[in-house]
Please model this.
Amino acid sequence: MSNNMFTPAPDEFRKLPKVELHRHLEGSLRLQTMIEVARKHGMTLPANVVRLSRLVQVQDEDNFTFDNFLSKFNTLRMFYRSPEVIERITNEAVEDAAKDNVRYMELRFTPVALSRAERFPLEDVTDWVCKAARNASKKHNVNVRLIASVNRHEPVELAEQVAWLAAERITDGIVGLDLAGNEAQYPSRPFLPIFNEARQAGLRVTMHAGEWAGAQNVREAIEVFVADRIGHGVRVLEDDFTTALAREHGTAFEVCVTSNYQTGAVESLPKHPLPRMIEKGLNVTINTDDPSISQITLGNEYRAVVEDLRISREVLKERILAAAQASFLPENDKKKLLDSLKKDLAK
Model:
């Protein structure tokens, strides 16, 4: 295990131009950065990299459950100690994507999580991320947009604040609103009015659904929330009606293969439903979720899809284009992205 990024993907997959639609800023922190922040802010943490890694990254010997996966975020929330730290982790998340040849990324961030350790105003945190993402986008030559994320297990009032802040910052690069968190124990209905208002304000909608609870949550996301995209959605196949509904709507699924295995959403990597989702004509895209927690890059995910799930390289390339098509970019920007990807994927 390296201190920085992880086992690099084979060149073939690292060099492919990529589109990332589902990556959490809070799951993208470099270990080395955490150690430096801890030292600077006098945080009591294991001095040893390996011991710190156990707290914030999934290990082979861990129980692959969503409780274990979510527990990593409890430690990660302790690191957001200053505007400089938040700007640094945003810049590094974009830099790491650039090294992996990600051409376009929608980076989602959770203002409530970033504000927690030092009780920063949500407005300030949102501005710091917007500014850092804009600067990093130019510096590393990656087209970056942001998605503001709210959690089901946190108060609706907080989600409402975040939604308003996001809507006011559409011109600063925020393109969507996401509902995340523990869907097995917390309902999404209380958040419906907020998401309806956000859509009217011009934000696009994505929701975590069908990851830790069944297909009914995917159906609710499509029919009730009118979500443009579904985060994960791997349990959609448990219900034929919902599968047909998602196919008819062309709803894009932000599938995160390694994460789905590590959270216990699927029982093993070879049994991941991605190939069956493709067979059923569902609009799937391939993403990392939390590259640092899972110790992966998007290149690693592309390799896993081809080598472990036996999906052809041609289908992988189609899914990269599908991700660009499902992006929350304005139509003319989307067309430019698609044209440049098509050109590079044809080489």
About this structure: Strands lie at 18-24, 102-109, 143-151, 174-180, 204-209, 229-232, 252-255, 283-286. The longest strand covers residues 143-151.
